[in-house]
Amino acid sequence: METKVRVAGLRKRYGTAEALRGVDFNLKAGEIFGLLGPNGAGKTTTLECVLGLREADAGVVEICGLDARLFPREVKRKIGVALQSTALQDKITPREALDLFGAFYPEPESTLRLLERFDLVAKADAPFETLSGGQRQRLALALAFVHRPEVVILDEPSTGLDPQARHELHAEIRRMKRDGYTVLLSTHQLDEAAALCDRVAIIDQGRIVATGTPQELVATAAGGQAVTFTASKPIDPALLARLAGVRALECEGMRVQFETDAAEPVLAAVLSLLAAEGAVLWELELKRSSLEDVFLKLTRPTTTPAALHV
Predict the structure, then answer these.
(1) In contact, 69 and 18? CB cutoff 8 Å
(2) How far is it, in rounded angstroms, from Cα 89 to Cα 241?
């Protein structure tokens, strides 16, 4: 499959602080690729280098086969960008903004077509200051499509949106994929990444520490299930620790939490133990590992994990 974005060996230093330490990832044509990372991990610097807003100290950025350093103007015509927030003049309307941005390109997309696609026809002549958060984000997406890009870069697009606007945004991102666009999505919302992305890369301390589909990362890095239960009386932790398949055991009063790879036989053993101890099961929660679990394990401040690629 054709590679639309290739980032290799990207490095960036600010004084003595090394923000990027050899970042590598690639986007395949027609996929939604998520870039995840905690604050200060290097995510924003990476995006800025990809967009040409900041020059890397070393490394390669290729967009649609073009070296971004050697052909910056051509590369900018290949990418559309929607940032966290869109700042426009208060009185400008969506129609005027789209006409204005379109005037910068030789063959812009039709303003009417963009208004229709991003459900802005009813607000086409409303001042920007009157638009809701969701409408402003849809306008930002419309502006990103003015010049008919091949690659769309979305930086925290759902920040500050209400649930309905977020749902509509997700539907639009999925539509981008169906229409053949390649999407680079930066987000702090791990459930958003799991729901939308074909693959994700987790960046921490200036390095990519995991790359793969959300399902692959969950299966490889955080396998097993988390079990939490509350009994009618405290159970001796030593008895629970002796049960086959129990690990990472934590007991606090009548509440018990542990991890296991074989939930059914372990739960059967727990129920037998409770019965033997004269205790009754009050509450039980069984939770499969999630992308959030992987993220937290790989980006803990006290650890420096080896890179995981699946």
Answers:
(1) no
(2) 63
What are 274-299's pLDDT values in tens digits? 999 999 999 999 987 788 888 888 88
How far apart are the C-alpha atoms of 191 and 77, rounded to whole Å?
31
Contact 31, 79 (CB under 8 A): no
DSSP 121: G
Which residue stretches of the chain have pLDDT < 70? 221-223, 300-310
8 Å CB contact between 83 and 155: yes
Among 209, 214, 204, 207, smallest CA distance to 38 is for 204
pTM score of the predicted model: 0.80
Our CA dihedral for 296, 20, 34, 159, rounded to 10 degrees, sits at 80
Distance between CA atoms of 200 and 26, rounded to whole angstroms?
10
Rounded-to-integer distance, Cα 105 and Cα 23, Å = 32
State both tokens at 229: 């239960």
Cβ atoms of 43 and 186 within 8 Å: the answer is yes
Q: Which helix (H) or strand (E) holds 128?
A: none
CA torsion through residues 290, 30, 181, 10, sign? positive
Which residue, among 139, 63, 133, 138, has the nearest Cα to 100 in the 3D structure? 139
- Candidates 162, 199, 155, 156; CA nearest to 177 is 199
